[in-house]
Write a structure and sequence with these properties.
Layout (H helix, E strand, L loop, with lengths): L7 H8 L3 H5 L4 H27 L1 H82 L2 H11 L4 H4 L13 H26 L2 H10 L6 H21 L7 H27 L4 H26 L2 H13 L10 H4 L4 H39 L3 H7 L3 H6 L12 E2 L6 E2 L2 H30 L30 H20 L2 H25 L7 H36 L5 H12 L4 H32 L9 H9 L2 H17 L5 H24 L5 H22 L8 H10 L12 H7 L10
Antiparallel strand pairs: 1-2
């Protein structure tokens, strides 16, 4: 084995080889392995010795070079030693100089600090002298500015040994404290005097001095009291109005004007965010005054008595919603209903104004509150404390102690107005529900279906439509009912309370259920004359069709209004409102069901008899067993097609003015279904030959085209089976009937020229 093949693992094995272990080895295989390992090691050592012998000359040369280099290094070391001694001495001197420099720097810093302290002390002495002079001359503006500048003096200056030179009598701190206390009292007195004399210029001057004296809370609180008094003066003229909604509107407009007019002033002299204290104070004042207005409103409008009347009506109403005299049987006169409607209108206006006022305050306060997030110290200085809030609530107001300032919005949460808004919402729901039920019942009871013009004559298939005045296709109840529903939903959206929208949406759903029931009842009522029956069915169809259109339009418009007016409300509230509005779409399925039921009634009472009469008249003296000559005559002068076209046009001319376009299309579909059903039965009982079958196929195509032109749509699906039957009866005479479908065999059995199987 070559020596170069010796692997690293063999070398590792030799590293741990122990002679004691070797001498104790008894196993033959292990002894052989150790022997091979020793041979490899011996070979490796021989190779290394051979390499050393071969390169002996180069090794000797390198050793000689190393010896010469050693001598050169020793010589250089002797030359460097004097220089090293000089460097060591220089380094010692530099260290000593550095220490002296550091000492000098420290002395310089101390000297500069002392000079600054002396300078500030001299300036402080000058300010104190000016302050005393300003206090003696009652120069409040200059004195306040000096006090403000004193606050910029560092504590090192006030605690320095030079401070004694600033004042001869007492400590500067004592002088400033006494001057500040006196100035605060003077400025407060000046502010109150200016308020009594209505000197707005002096009020603004004093308001700017409070932050210089470190009395920001006092200044903001006094200014807030002044603004609240100003609001009283602005709203005094509104007290003469008997409309309480107008009073609240004037109150909130005055507060909004005050906030906008003083926003920049407070921000300039007090800083960003401090206007929140004034906004919170004005919010509490607005809540207090709005509650007073609502108390007077509740008492003067006799809201409790009206609610008791409504509740009595609800308890004592086991009868259907719609009766001709329902509005006279519920114990509430027309005069009382007008009073309730006026109260409802005022409640809606008040609710709208309260919601708008809250959104306005939130839009002004929330950006400022966001600046104070994460700064609890500033929030504590700016926000009204719970104790302060409780002092602003009248003792007669029994409110739970839950008022606090919301750090996110910067406004007071759970004010006394909050509970009154809940009461107002409850009142609104009660009044609106009653008015919706009463108004819809009245609209349906006063429906003018029987008085509509142009419906004196009945629809008859064999009579040409007589010239008459314009026909009114729908009755009054559709527009009235949707006007009531849309107005109620808009009122609910204006209240900006999800609970109100949900309650009114449910009320509208129930009322429309009654509307659908009444419309369906019109289609089954029995009347003495045919014209009245047709009028009620057709008008009901038009009403239901128009109601479906109005419903979708109403839902879309109310949803848009809700998204616009509720833009600043929480997403949860908007979702609840949208879901309540969307639930109204469920009425559409009820309308379609009632419409289909009315069409079924129309089919049984009018369409089936008319189409049967038209078919009978058109098929008079008509046969489908034709000779070649008869076939040619029929082709040139088809009496069936002429008669059918004439009669169907007459019927269409009578129905079209009575129906809406979309309703007319539905009626034409039902008419086709009636025609196809009777025609199929007649064809199964008729005799044909091939030429007659071909003519029948032409007749089917003609009738389909005629009705499509009349209906304005495609009716291929409805005529599919008739077309298939026409193709069967038009098959050549040699057609075999063996193995064909049972229905086809039955049709071919009517062929006189087809050989039938035995």
């Amino acid at each position: 084995m070559p020596v170069e093949a010796l692997m690293d693992d063999d070398l590792d094995e030799l590293a741990w080889l122990n002679l004691d272990d070797v001498s104790q080895t008894l196993d033959v295989s292990e002894i052989e392995h150790l022997y091979q390992t020793l041979e490899l090691e011996e070979a490796r050592i021989e190779v290394e010795i051979s390499d050393c012998v071969e390169h002996r000359n180069s090794v000797d040369t390198r050793l000689a070079q190393l010896s010469a280099l050693h001598k050169s290094v020793e010589a250089t070391s002797l030359l460097v030693k004097p220089m090293q001694r000089v460097i060591d001495a220089t380094a010692g001197n530099a260290g000593a100089i550095s220490g002296h420099v550091r000492e000098l720097d420290q002395e310089r810093v101390k000297l500069e600090h002392a000079l600054n302290t002396v300078k500030e002390t001299v300036e402080l002495k000058s300010r104190l002298s000016e302050l005393l002079t300003a206090m003696e001359t009652r120069d409040v503006d200059r004195a306040s500015l000096l006090v403000h500048e004193y606050k910029a003096t560092s504590s090192d200056t006030l605690d320095s040994p030079f401070i004694a030179f600033a004042s001869d009598s007492s400590q500067p701190r004592d002088i400033i404290a006494a001057a500040t206390k006196e100035l605060v009292e003077r400025v407060t007195f000046m502010f109150n005097t200016a308020v009594e004399s209505n000197n707005t210029r002096e009020i603004g001057r004093c308001f700017r001095l409070f932050p210089q004296l470190g009395e920001t809370q006092r200044g903001l609180d006094l200014y807030s009291e002044f603004l609240c008094a100003a609001i009283t003066d602005k709203t005094r003229l509104a007290q003469v109005h008997t409309t309480y909604a107008l009073r609240i509107t004037r109150l909130f407009e005055a507060i909004a004007s005050v906030v906008d007019n003083n926003f920049a002033l407070v921000e300039q002299y007090y800083g960003r965010g401090y206007v929140l204290r004034i906004i919170q104070r004005l919010q509490m004042e607005g809540a207090r005054r709005a509650c007073l207005v609502l108390d007077f409103f509740e008492e003067e409008r006799q809201v409790k008595r009206r609610l008791a009347q409504i509740q009595q009506v609800d308890v004592a109403k086991p009868r259907p919603l719609v009766k001709a005299k329902a509005e006279k049987d519920d114990g509430i006169s027309d005069g009382d209903f007008k009073d309730i409607a006026s109260i409802l209108a005022e409640v809606v206006l008040i609710g709208r104004q309260v919601a708008a006022f809250n959104r306005f305050l939130e839009s002004r306060a929330q950006p400022e509150a966001s600046l104070l997030l994460g700064d609890p110290e500033t929030q504590a200085r700016v926000f009204l404390s719970t104790e302060s809030l409780n002092k602003l609530v009248p003792l007669s107001s029994a409110l739970p102690n839950t008022m606090h300032v919301d750090a996110q919005t910067g406004l007071v949460a759970h004010t006394q107005l909050t509970s009154r808004v809940e009461w107002l919402t409850n009142v609104y729901v009660e009044l609106e529900t009653f008015c919706v039920q009463r108004s819809m019942a009245k609209a349906m009871a006063l429906d003018d279906t029987n008085e509509l013009s142009g419906w004196d004559s009945a629809v008859i298939s064999d009579v040409e439509a007589r010239a008459q005045g314009p026909m009114v296709q729908t009755s009054s109840c559709v527009g009235d009912v949707f006007f009531v529903a849309k107005t109620a939903l808009e009122h609910a959206v204006a209240m900006q309370q999800p609970r109100a929208v949900e309650a009114i949406a449910q009320c509208v759903l129930e009322a429309f259920g009654e509307f659908v029931r009444v419309m369906g009842q019109q289609a089954v009522e029995k009347w003495a004359d045919v014209a009245s029956v047709q009028r009620r069915i057709l008008v009901a169809l038009n009403n239901l069709d128009l109601a479906n259109v109005y419903l979708q339009k109403m839902v879309d418009e109310v949803r848009i209004r809700l998204n616009t007016e509720w833009a600043r409300l929480p997403e949860t509230d908007k979702t609840k409102g949208q879901n309540a509005i969307d639930s109204l779409s469920a009425i559409s399925s009820k309308l379609l069901q009632a419409q289909q039921h009315s069409i079924d009634q129309l089919s049984s009472s009018l369409l089936k008899p008319c189409m049967r009469s038209i078919l009978q008249h058109s098929y008079r003296d008509i046969k489908y067993v034709l000779s070649d000559e008869e076939f040619n005559d029929v082709q040139s002068d088809n009496l069936f097609q002429q008669r059918f076209n004439l009669r169907i046009r007459k019927l269409g001319h009578q129905l079209r003015p009575r129906l809406l376009p979309s309703t007319y299309t539905l009626v034409m579909d039902a008419m086709c279904a009636c025609l196809v059903y009777d025609w199929e039965r007649a064809i199964r009982q008729s005799k044909f030959n091939m030429l007659g079958g071909m003519m029948f196929e032409k007749d089917v195509r003609f009738v389909q085209l005629c009705l499509e032109q009349e209906a304005g749509g495609v009716l291929r699906a409805k005529f599919a089976k008739l077309v298939q039957m026409a193709r069967v009866v038009a098959e050549p005479a040699e057609t075999s009937v063996a193995g064909v479908d049972k229905d086809v065999r039955a049709l071919l059995a009517n062929r006189v020229d087809v050989v039938q199987p035995n």
